[in-house]
């Protein structure tokens, strides 16, 4: 089976290409940016280019996108061209060439304002039944692309699975307030409780999605580390998160104290990956308990794959606020 990977110079695209090549599976990486994992350089917004690279392809993993950090540096039209037109071009070419599985990488950012409850409300439990309330052009275009996938399954019978990934990038947080309040490793460890995954687990889910797409047809799935929390914790999590973590992950305090770390005082949302585990057969390894075990052994909690890829950034230049420009 020949697999086309878009966005092969990015975090996930490179991770997929590294994995597929290591497994000896035929794969072609495409991206605007040349890289060791990019076989064909070009734009997915160019229909002729997409038609050429789709020849002989059996499965598509579409990771190429403009991300949230690009909102401040790219126009809304740029987002439409890449995230919507690019996806449409790929879907049309995939349907025309008889592709048997189309896996689209979406984002939990698409939930938008649904992720932040009112100040006096419990934390939000985010699963696939929550209706997104987009708050920027990034979320709007990712949701539009998801619906194109649904449409192509409905009308062209193209098997399409949408994977809404939580954070897995290694770059510092895009919030200056969080960067100033927590060291980066502490911040990321905390996020494994409710909104982060390791790129190795994300890759594993995408490869499972290729296998399951023909049987499932169409589906949307949240990809995030398995949370130790339950719905019963939501009210307390919002204002007293450390108490909930102590109850759900007994003994974490000693390792955090040894490092001078702390849990966030409150957590506003929790991602539930149950459906992905049930329907894709996904078994994520890198959760908060795994992170703690690695930290206790003074080892890097990231997967070897994540360590090999490292940070890439999102822009060619630097800004006064570090990696991220300020959005107007």
Automatic annotation (TrEMBL):
Keyword hit for Isomerase: yes
Record-listed E.C. numbers: 5.1.3.2
One Pfam family this sequence matches: Epimerase
Enzyme class: isomerase
InterPro entries: Epimerase_deHydtase, Lipid_A_modif_metabolic_enz, NAD(P)-bd_dom_sf
NAD-dependent epimerase/dehydratase domain span: 3-212
Entry GO MF terms: UDP-glucose 4-epimerase activity
Source organism superkingdom: Bacteria
Keyword field contains DNA-binding: no
Gene3D superfamilies recorded: NAD(P)-binding Rossmann-like Domain (3.40.50.720)
Annotated keywords: Isomerase
Protein name: UDP-glucose 4-epimerase
Lineage, broadest ranks: Bacteria, Pseudomonadati, Pseudomonadota, Gammaproteobacteria, Lysobacterales
């Amino acid at each position: 089976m020949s697999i086309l990977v878009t966005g092969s110079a990015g975090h996930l695209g490179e991770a997929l290409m590294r994995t597929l090549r290591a497994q000896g599976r035929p794969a072609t990486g495409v991206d605007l940016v040349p890289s060791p994992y990019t076989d064909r350089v070009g734009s997915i917004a160019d229909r002729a280019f997409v038609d050429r690279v789709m020849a002989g392809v059996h499965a598509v993993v579409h990771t190429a996108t403009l991300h949230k950090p690009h909102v401040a540096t790219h126009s809304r039209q740029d987002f439409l061209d890449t995230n919507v037109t690019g996806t449409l071009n790929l879907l049309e070419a995939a349907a025309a060439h008889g592709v048997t599985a189309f896996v689209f990488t979406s984002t939990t950012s698409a939930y938008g304002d649904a992720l932040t409850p009112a100040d006096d409300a419990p934390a939000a439990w985010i699963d696939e039944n929550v209706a997104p309330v987009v708050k920027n052009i990034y979320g709007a275009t990712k949701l539009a692309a998801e619906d194109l996938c649904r449409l192509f399954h409905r009308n062209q019978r193209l098997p399409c699975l949408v994977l809404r990934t939580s954070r897995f990038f290694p770059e510092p947080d895009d919030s200056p307030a969080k960067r100033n309040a927590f060291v980066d490793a502490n911040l990321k460890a905390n996020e494994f409780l409710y909104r982060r995954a390791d790129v190795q687990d994300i890759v594993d889910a995408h490869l499972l999605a290729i296998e399951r797409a023909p049987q499932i047809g169409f589906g949307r799935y949240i990809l995030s580390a398995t949370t130790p929390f339950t719905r019963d914790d939501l009210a307390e999590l919002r204002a007293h998160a450390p108490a909930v973590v102590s109850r759900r992950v007994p003994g974490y305090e000693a390792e955090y104290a040894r490092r001078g770390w702390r849990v966030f005082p409150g957590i506003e949302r929790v991602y539930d990956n149950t459906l992905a585990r049930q329907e894709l057969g996904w078994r994520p390894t890198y959760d908060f308990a795994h992170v703690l075990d690695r930290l206790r052994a003074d080892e890097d909690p990231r997967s070897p794959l994540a360590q090999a890829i490292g940070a890439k950034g999102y822009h060619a230049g630097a800004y006064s606020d570090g990696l991220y420009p300020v959005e107007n």
